[in-house]
């Protein structure tokens, strides 16, 4: 019995050791995946003055403004003063978007409407009690 357990454990360890190199990605592949993720995030935000972003680049440079242009290899961020800065996707460390989607805007509007309705009903009930 002990032999079977030991042989199963050894087989599992050998299979695991053989599978690890297959899952390891090179740094170039990781950079490409990361750049694609940034490109996808920025494409969701869109372009124009409503597409506000805060960026922290990999060299700790901070940029804030809106996305004025999206390309295949880079994009352009324009700040409040109108200065445009071209940024390559692999240079981006962190992206933070500042615009709401249509669904989020609808949810906020419905929440405000429900709150106002409940407040009016509460005031009417309270006035009728007096």
How would you describe the overall organization of this protein?
The protein has 130 residues and is an alpha+beta fold. Helices cover 53% and strands 24% of the residues. It has 2 domains: 27-99, Roll (SH3 type barrels); 100-130. The chain is built from 3 helices and 5 strands; from the N terminus they run ααβββββα. The model has no long low-confidence stretch (mean pLDDT 83).
Give the gist of this structure.
The chain has 130 residues and is α+β, with helices and mostly antiparallel strands.
Straight-line distance between termini: 84 Å
Q: What are the secondary-structure elements, in order, as H or E?
A: HHEEEEEH
Q: What is the CATH class designation of the largest domain? A: Mainly Beta
Strand content: 15-25%
Which tags fit this structure?
single chain, 130 residues, alpha+beta, SH3 type barrels, 2 domains, five-stranded antiparallel sheet, flat
Show the helix and strand layout.
Layout: H1 2-23, H2 27-45, E1 52-57, E2 62-70, E3 74-78, E4 84-88, E5 92-97, H3 102-129
Antiparallel strand pairs: 1-2, 1-5, 2-3, 3-4
């Amino acid at each position: 019995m002990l032999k079977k357990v030991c042989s199963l454990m050894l087989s599992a360890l050998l299979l695991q050791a053989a599978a690890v190199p297959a899952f390891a990605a090179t740094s170039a592949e990781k950079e490409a995946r990361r750049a694609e993720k940034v490109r996808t995030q920025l494409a969701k935000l869109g372009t124009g003055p409503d597409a506000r972003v805060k960026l922290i680049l990999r060299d700790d440079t901070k940029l804030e403004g809106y996305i004025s242009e999206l390309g295949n290899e880079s994009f352009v961020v324009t700040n409040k003063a109108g200065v445009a800065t071209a940024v390559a996707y692999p240079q981006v460390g962190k992206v933070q978007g500042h615009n709401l989607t249509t669904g989020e805007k609808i949810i906020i509007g419905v929440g405000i409407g429900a709150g106002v309705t409940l407040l009016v009903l509460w005031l009417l009930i309270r006035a009728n009690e007096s």
